Amino acid sequence: MFKTPENKGMLEAFLIEYYVPKKERRVDKMVNVNDIYGGGDFLKTDDVTADLTLTIKSEELRALNDKDKIVLSFEEINKTLVLNKINAQRIAEHHGEDTKLWIGKKITLYRTTTEMSGKDVPCIRIKKKEE
Fold first, then answer.
1. 42 CB neighbour count, 10 Å cutoff
2. Which domains does the chain possess?
3. Phi/psi at 2 (nearest 5 deg)?
């Protein structure tokens, strides 16, 4: 019954549906990288070509890649910044540890590099508070 080419897809679908756990199934459809990794609304290193001073408009906690991250939005631009630990600690040095108190405060972003897996890669950092 399943030997004809027309039925081959039906057999594969049946076997996958009933014998392959959902988390191990491969989805054969076109995937847009921006749909998976957040798209164009996140600041990227290419967006920071010089020091960029921004006013924090809002902060929220989002689950990204199964980890909770602080995400900031700004008055001046329509992109958000996902904070890593270093940048979150730097803002806390400037404006306190309560993220609600950050709203309305200014931070300055700059582009630099950091080592990841033995390679220098571009990254965004928060400038230290000037004395």
1. 15
2. 33-126 (2.40.50)
3. -100, 20
